[in-house]
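Possible regression after last week's pipeline update?

I re-ran a chain I had predicted before the update to compare outputs. Posting the input and the new output here so someone can diff against the archived version. Not blocking, just want to make sure nothing changed silently.
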Amino acid sequence: MTIFSLLHQSTPPTLPPSERMILLYQCYGADLVIEIPGNQGLDDSFYRLDYYPPIGNPAPNATIASRDVGDEIQFSNGLPGTRYNFWLYYTNSTHKDWLTWTVSITTAPDPPANLTVIPRSGKNVIINWSPPAQGNYSSFKLKILGLSDNFATNQTVAIEDNQFQYMVRDLTPGATYQVQAYTLYDGKESVAYTSRNFTTKPNTPGKFIVWFRNETTLLVLWQPPYPAGIYTHYKVSIEPPDALGSVLYVQKEGEPPGPAQAAFKGLVPGRAYNISVQTMSEDEISLPTTAQYRTVPLRPMNVTFDKKSITENSFKVMWEAPKGTSEFDKYQVSLSTSRRQQAVLRNDNENMAWLEFKDNLDPGKTYQVVVKTVSGKVTSWPASGDVTLKPLPVKQLQSYTDSKTGVITISWKPDELSTQDEYRISYHELETNNGDSSTMSTNQTSFALESLLPGRNYSVTVQALSRKMESNETVIFVVTRPSSPIIEDLKSIREGLNISWKSDVNSKQDKYEVTYTRNDTNDGKTVLTTESRLVFTNLYPGAGYEVKVFAVSHGLRSEPHSYFQAVCKYLGGV
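New output (post-update):
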């Protein structure tokens, strides 16, 4: 308790000395204690207390018997922040309503009401309050106390001119403070104060990136705020909230803090996600650092090629949409040998997609086609397939026959604008449904057709091959010489010769050409026949003849088989 004042004392001579000093104490707010030292408590004496304004307890002009006073009179329920005038009268058998004491005193005001703190940023807050609900006031005082560990910044601010709002500046982001608000009136400060604890907004985290991503996971890495300020955790959120944990809390580590990370799992492939990172201090959270990232979309399936569409300079590639749920906008199709990328828009109504390549392609060359799905700017893992274009047909295909062996050799030249690694030779006997045919391969540009049967008409085709992809055919027709017949029997008859022969079973011939030549005159004759025997007549008896038999097939004669035979002379009968 504090003694406020003893303004005036008037004591009649008949009063005992012990009752001549009256002390006034103020307790809390508008409660007062009027102490009367040495009160004797006589039965025929009493006190009358009067005051203005007439609000309080006891009531104004209350009369209190001296024996009931003891050493003090307690005054309560007065108005706070109010100037009171008190008068104390004493009455006994000698004196009546003797003014023994008077004083003027101002009661302490009530503290402000409705104290609120609104953080505006990491460094500034706005403090609002209302004046006391009752009583007077002239100004206010604010005390700002720092409560964070290892952190103390205290300041006192006097508020004048009926202001009920004040902005505190230059605080530490994320720090916790207590504001104490006092009311002042007539030099008196409120005994109590109104207080609020508050935390400033922590600083916003630095930039962040995706450190790792796949079809269902995003791992983000971010920098701490700068300057760091005060904070304890990061709040990391993802939208849409598809993750197994869509809001994560990551504790701050290190001092000064280093980079931090968080992983979101169970996401939808190819979907765009908005990720935000915020720092937290107590119940305050910073403004977010935000960015949008996408998971990797699922890749396409089954890259194939339409074989009918493959030409020397074009092809058509086809593929299937990804299997499973995946978000993507389009397909990106490219050749491994080119940086050019072509886009094919997604069609939700079709499971298959295709694209035709027909520019700047080389015959016979092998291309790898790479197909990816694209979501935003994020591409899937590739699906690929290899296709080889048809090489160009060979040129200058020709044949020649060895005059000694009769073997036909063909030769050709590849097209210089084409790529090929081998050649396919096929031959087929014409003019029959089940004739002789065969196919063989070589990496040379000539080939001896040693297995052709004699006396045949063949179509021979040559195709350039590039990784088994065939060019169009280049065709040539060749005819083989028939095999030589073998004269089986040559007999001399009267004025003639009787000849018979046979042919190789593997040889075919259209006819035979038979000639004879007289050895002494070189006279001769040639006969064509389809039979395998022949009789020459009207020959000169006794002359010798050389007989030759040729097989003829498609205008080609075989090597002859010759025989010398004399015609018997005719001897007349007796």
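Follow-up from reviewer: compared with the archived run. The chain has six domains: 3-9+22-107, 116-200, 207-294, 301-388, 395-480, 486-567. Marking as no regression found.
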